[in-house]
Amino acid sequence: VQLQASGGGLVQAGDSLRLSCAASKRTASNNGMGWFRQAPGKEREFVASINWNGGSPSYADSVKGRFTISRGHAQSMVYLQMNSLKPEDTAVYYCAVARSAWGSTSGDRYQYWGQGTQVTVSS
User: Fold this and answer.
1) CB neighbour list of residue 40: distance below 8 Å, 6 or more residues apart
2) What is the pLDDT of residues 57-67, one digit of tens each?
3) 33: which residues sit within 8 A by CB, 6+ positions away?
4) Rounded to an integer, what distance in angstroms lies between the CA atom of residue 68 and that of residue 41?
5) DSSP secondary structure letters along 19-84
6) Distances 50 to 2, 32, 91, 110, 122 between C-alpha atoms, Å
């Protein structure tokens, strides 16, 4: 199982980034997917999730209104459009495939994890 996340980088506050995550169709096409992040010295936290069919997007309060999760390419891709980035968004971002067809805010409900992509937002 491979999950390949990409799109991270170093940006300034207020800028935008789009993260992408590619999974095999067999792995992800019938499963919910999500994005989590982990900042240095902090626990991993939920960012966004989406159901197998691209429905019911869910967001952490800290990113609501700024980030958008979506799916594409026969549901094998998941994207995270991040706008109005803030320094507190700095973290390693991980994509994950859920154990079921539904996205979840709990990391325990995910079975496969990508390797992470670094997002750094300078003030």
Assistant:
1) none
2) 999 999 999 99
3) 21, 23, 49, 50, 71, 78, 95, 96, 97, 98, 103
4) 26
5) EEEEE-HHHHTTS-EEEEEE-TTS--EEEEEE-TTS---EE-TTTTTTEEEEEETTTTEEEEEE-S
6) 19, 6, 20, 12, 28
* Distance in angstroms (rounded) separating the CA atoms of residues 45 and 60: 9
What stretch of H or E contains 97? strand 91-98
DSSP label at 109?
G
Q: pLDDT > 70: what percent of the chain?
A: 98
Rounded Cα distance between 48 and 15, Å, is 19
Q: Which pLDDT belongs to residue 50?
A: 97
In this structure, what token pair is assigned to residue 70?
């979506």
Q: Which residue from 29, 24, 91 is spatially nearest to 60, judged by alpha carbons? A: 91
62 burial via Cβ count (<10 Å: 0-12, 13-18, 19+): middle
Which token pair is 18? 């789009």
For residues 52 and 74, what is the distance between their CA atoms, to the nearest angstrom? 10
